[in-house]
Specification:
- The chain has 203 residues and is an all-alpha fold.
- The protein has one domain.
- 76% of the residues lie in helices and 0% in strands.
- Helix 6 packs antiparallel against helix 7.
- The protein is globular.
- Required for nicotinamide riboside transport across the inner membrane.
Length: 203
């Protein structure tokens, strides 16, 4: 953030800190299967659109826009199952969903990474594109309450930490370090809820 004036730097830091707090809170709520995760996440998403634009991480900026859409989708999906207003249970990914994910991530990474590299001043274009692809997949799976979303978040969060340190987004790097612990806790908690409930769905 050395390209900002002192007053702008202060505003950018405050924006990032608020984004960190709301981001941490929404993941904690998601791990507890609390529906308030979605409105809190929307606040964090809006702040990070600004943060990533200024950091020239354009794929991450676009990811936040998609997160906003997926948060509305997840908000609905968590409260409905088979078009009925019934809380959706945690379930496992199907082999078909794994197949789509493994196809989507490399295709999206190469396509977006190439575009950013050749047409913008984006920094770390391919890394940015790859973490965006994996994050989109993880967020979609979380929206459908698939247990494995937490394991995918573990992988991508571990990659995000050094990227944000490199970009001098230190509060955000710290946030993603905390996300690693929350993702593991979320996985264990969701897995426990599956064991306790006979309502596990395969879709």
């Amino acid at each position: 953030m050395d390209f900002l004036s002192p007053s702008q730097w202060d505003l950018a830091l405050v924006t990032e800190v608020v984004g960190v707090v709301t981001g941490l809170l929404c993941v904690w709520l998601a791990a507890r299967q609390n529906i308030w995760t979605f409105p809190i996440a929307l606040i964090s998403v809006l702040l990070y659109i600004v943060i990533f634009y200024k950091a020239r991480l354009y794929a991450d900026m676009g990811l936040q826009v998609m997160f906003a859409v997926l948060n509305f989708y997840g908000w609905y999906m968590w409260l409905h199952k088979d078009k009925q207003r019934v809380e959706r249970p945690v379930s496992r990914m199907t082999s078909r969903q794994w197949g789509w994910l493994l196809l989507f991530v490399p295709v999206f990474t190469l396509g977006l990474g190439s575009y950013l590299h050749h047409n913008t001043d984006a920094d770390l274009a391919y890394w940015d594109a790859s973490t965006t692809a994996v994050s989109l997949g993880a967020q979609w799976l979380m929206s459908r309450k698939k247990l494995e979303n937490w394991l995918i978040w573990l992988v991508v969060d571990a990659v995000y930490v050094p990227i944000y340190i490199y970009k001098e987004l230190y509060p955000t790097a710290g946030l993603y370090l905390l996300y690693l612990g929350l993702a593991w806790w979320g996985y264990l908690d969701w897995k426990k809820s599956m064991t306790a409930s006979p309502q596990e769905a395969a879709r």
